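Morning run. Coffee first, then this:
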Amino acid sequence: MTLPAKNLLAEEASPYLQQHSGNPVHWRAWSPASLAEARTLNRPILLSIGYAACHWCHVMAHESFEHDGVAAVMNRLFVNIKVDREERPDIDQIYMAALSSMGEQGGWPLTMFLTPEGKPFWGGTYFPREPRYGRPGFIQVMEAVDKAWREKKESLGQSADGLTAHVEARLAGVHAKATLERDTLANLAVGIDGMIDRDLGGLRGAPKFPNAPFMLTLWLSWLRDGNSSHRDAVLVSLERMLAGGIYDHIGGGLSRYSTDAEWLVPHFEKMLYDNAQLIRLCNWAYAETGNDLFRIRIEETIDWLLREMSVEGGALAASLDADSDGEEGLFYTWDRAQIEAVLGDDSAFFFRYFTLSRPHSWEGKPIVHQSASQQTESLTDRGRLAPLKAKLLAAREGRIRPGRDGKTLTDWNGLMIAALTEAGRSLNRPDWVEAAETAFAHIDGASQGGRLPHSMLGARKLFPAMSSDYAAMTNAAISLYEATGKPSYIDRARHFVEQLDQWHQDAGKTGYYLTASDSTDVPIRIRGDVDEAIQSATGQIIEALVRLSSASGDLALQEKAWNIAEHAAGRVARQAYGQAGVVNACALTIEPIKLVLVDNPDGSRLVPVANRNPDPRRVDIVVSIGSEANRPILPGGILPPTDKAGAWLCTGQVCLSPVIDAQELERLLHRGDTSISH
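And here it is:
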């Protein structure tokens, strides 16, 4: 079959695909029909993968995809398929792995050339229209690929077969399960700690990413083993990035990464997942240190989130672009005269605590940031600074805004729902928990036939969900259960795990595939073991199973989690650095922690202690004094008495003696040292 010889993206549910609907390129979305067209025409596929907030994706679009001459070559030689990597992370991971296997540096836009059967044989990332930056021009590339395809089709086909087999073995392979060992986390944490920049935070060198999975490895190592070096690596990383230009000091929120080693010059796109992870890390850091910096940045980031990222129904948008009016960072940057015009005589006070810098590598206006001393001192004068920042924010609102990718991604929303809920508990902000409940209800309510969508934009929904969607929503449901005590959230978590089992579990029940079993357009069903900027799907699944087992007391679920973790550990044994999320989840599996609190709902003494001492390893269950309903089961099948206040802290199948004093519970929880052996 063949499709109409025109651009077919106008009706897609992805803002990124819609952005390309006016291109002269005859774009198709990834679908069985598009793949069938390539086979019918016996024509190679030009696959372009990007996302709405990607700066270099926009550059390549403007240079090449909007150009009639380039489009004419594309339309003549290839079946052209455009993919939003956020809509189809499975497709993105397959072809990014293929590019990596070719020895090429990955990134977006991802530009791959495939056989008519969808097997990759060559690729790259950004190509300029004309030769520059040491790269060939895009027309040159396409003509060279076409020539090779016509003259060496058989050998290219063999190479594509081999490459596809290699990717399948890497991303979908079966390995013997491994014994879960405590040392795995400790060894990985030591390795990561050795890569940390002790002065600037983050991993040494540039570009610099927040790298939340690595930060969690270090934090878990600190909580479990008391390694203060690992705690300090996380704290210095957070402090430095929150002082840098990667953090939006006027409006709140973190950009995706910094182009330099100092966290100064970001790529200005803001992603929902980065900010969810920032909130969680800052929440743990605040509980550990009491440093108001972390609390204030949580408040600012959630203010930004609810102000700029809320969409219809209370769910949350995916991202904000880096560019506005065709210029990267224009919305966020200031020169001194602009700030003075807004603040007048107060500008001198503002500049006591903030610096404008324009390094030689940056062509835009200066970037707002802080030195370490300015960061510390500004906390004292926050009351005077807040109205000045509010004036600058109001002035900034009059500028041309960056584009917003307003689609609701289920997995990213799940991450943020959990982060909002945890921060709401810790900082006594029931309004944040309420916002999380609203987002959860909107996404859960969009289910059809019991199945979650992966993405939504207005009335348009993309089914089926990925395994990461069910895992993230399971974890979100458990966080909401901890905060509200509503047993309906445990019911929803169980339902999501049932959907995982039905649509994503492998035949041997050793793990899960990222893509559902009834998806017909993937060349490979991959596991989802590899971390990206967020924890892998497999890591999230194991965490969800462990947490649900702790919350429900379901021993069969605990055994399932252990089995899944052992097989995942076997698959990642040789490449733990790219799969820290699985290592972290396996550590939770070995030593799950449950805290059962019986307390007076009208005058809680113990619950506030638990709330202000968050621990990513722990599930908290709150029961009212005198309640006989929904009583949690302690290890050994014991029901805790509910006639008086008390706290039961359990690691695995062993519990400490019940605690009735709030100060004693504070001592027990604060340093995170909840190992029964201590």
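DSSP finds 25 helices and 21 strands in the chain. Good start to the day.
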